[in-house]
Specification:
About 25% of the residues lie in helices and about 40% in strands. A hairpin with a 4-residue loop joins strand 3 and strand 4. Helix 1 packs across helix 2. It is elongated, with a radius of gyration of 21 Å.
Amino acid sequence: MSKKCQVTGKKPRRGKSYSIRGIAKKKKGIGLNVTGTVKRRFLPNLVKKRFWFSEENRFITLKLSTSAMRTIDKRGLSAVVRELRAQGQHI
């Protein structure tokens, strides 16, 4: 399964990690300099979570970001499941 949230659609993003050397000007140095950059990935905080879906009297397993769990708490599980099924996802 991909590293993508089923509700919010969050997925890994690309970025860079910087290596910095030098002494700050505040400490009487010549300043901080970037001496190297390395590509990296910022991964979403995903959790595989089971919810009790009372309308169908069964458990539903979703792969969610933690912010999506807050969305489910706010809007309700049935509203979120209805929206996912309208998008064509199999749940």
